[in-house]
Amino acid sequence: LQLLLIEDDDDLRGEIRDYLVRKRHGVTALGSVAEARRVLGLMLPEDAVLDAVICDVNLKDGDGIDLYVEFGSRRPKLPWILMSGDPDPQRVADERKKHPDLPPCTVVGKPVSLHNLVELLARGSAGV
Questions:
Q1: In the structure, how many helices (H) and strands (E) does the chain have?
Q2: Is 115 exposed, middle or buried (0-12, 13-18, 19+ CB in 10 A)?
Q3: CA of residue 93 relative to chain centroid, distance
Q4: How far apart are CA 19 and CA 35, in angstroms?
Q5: Residue pLDDT, tens place only, 33-79
Q6: Can you tell me the distance from the alpha carbon of 3 to that of 124, in angstroms, rounded to the nearest whole number?
Q7: Strand, coil or helix: what is 18?
Q8: Over pLDDT 90: what percentage of the chain?
C-alpha cells in the first residue's frame, strides 16, 4: 500500500513509518498540517497512487479531523485512520453526517498498536 502518515512527534512518526516499511508499504511521512496540505494537494487527484491516510488528530499546527474534512471529499474512497490520545469518534461521526461524501474513517487511541494499525489497513479502514 502507498500511505500518507501525518504525525508531529518525530519519534512516533519514525517508529510508525519504519514498521510500515518493514511490512512492505510505501510511506510518505509528514510532521505538520502545513506539510500535509501541500502534499495532499498533489496526491489527491484520482490518478495519484495513495491507498490510505494515517493522521494524528492533535498536531502542533492544526487538527487532523479538520484536515480529514478539508481533503476527504476530494477522494471519497480513500480511507483515513485518525489517531489520538483522547479519541473522539463522535466528533468524526458528526462531521460525516454534515459531509456525507467523506471517505471511511477509523479513530484509534494512542498509544497505537502497530499490529492493529496494519490490520486496519488490510481491512481498508472500515470507518466510523
A1: 5, 7
A2: exposed
A3: 16
A4: 22
A5: 999 998 887 665 566 688 999 999 999 999 999 999 999 888 888 89
A6: 12
A7: helix
A8: 62
Q: At what angle do helices 114-123 and 10-22 cross, to 10 degrees?
A: 60
Contact 84, 56 (CB under 8 A): yes
Using CA atoms, how far residue 44 sits from 35, 52, 58, 91, in Å, is: 14, 11, 22, 24
pLDDT at residue 126, rounded to an integer: 46
Cell of 127: 470507518
User: Which DSSP state fits 87?
Assistant: -
Q: Which amino acid is at 35?
A: E
pLDDT, residue 39, reads 86
Q: What is the pTM of this model?
A: 0.90
| Residue 61: closest CA among 28, 34, 37, 88 | 34
